[in-house]
Amino acid sequence: MEIQILGPSCANCLKLEMLVMRTLTELGNRDARVEKVTAPREMEQLMSGEPPGLVVNDQLVWSGGKELPTQAQIAEWIREVTRAQIAEWIREVIRAPA
């Protein structure tokens, strides 16, 4: 799993990073790769709103706003993206010729 935290290292960006790390620890996900994206051009390619932003496996799940998401929200986004990707993988396997 790859997670990107989008933002210029502002206070909310750092808080979001801490929330993500705590959430991953609580979920027992030790394999996730967390990357901070601070370059303006990269951030613009990944989101259209104000930073900070959160990308899970190449899918923007949250951006901007003065209120940060809760750990419960972050955990649910991680689960949703993971479930959707597993479902897509299963569909591809079923469609693949034997």
Question: Could you walk me through the main structural features you see in this protein, from its secondary elements to its overall organization?
Answer:
There is one protein chain. With 98 residues, the chain is an alpha+beta fold. 50% of the residues lie in helices and 19% in strands. The protein has 3 helices and 4 strands. A 4-stranded mixed sheet has the order 2-1-3-4. Helix 1 packs across helix 3. The two termini are 28 Å apart. The relative contact order is 0.20. The model has no long low-confidence stretch (mean pLDDT 90).
What is the total domain count? 1
Spatial strand arrangement across the major sheet: 2-1-3-4
- What's the CATH class label? Alpha Beta
Order of helices and strands: EHEHEEH
Please tell me the CATH architecture by its name: 3-Layer(aba) Sandwich
Compute the average pLDDT.
90
- From the structure provided, what is the oligomeric state, counting identical versus distinct chains? single chain
Ranges with pLDDT <50 over ≥5 residues? none
Indicate the overall shape.
globular
Structural class: alpha+beta
Please indicate the percent range of residues in DSSP E strands (runs of 2 or more).
15-25%
Count the beta strands: 4
CATH topology call: Glutaredoxin
* The CATH H-level homologous superfamily: Glutaredoxin
Reported for the largest beta sheet, the result is: 4 strands, mixed
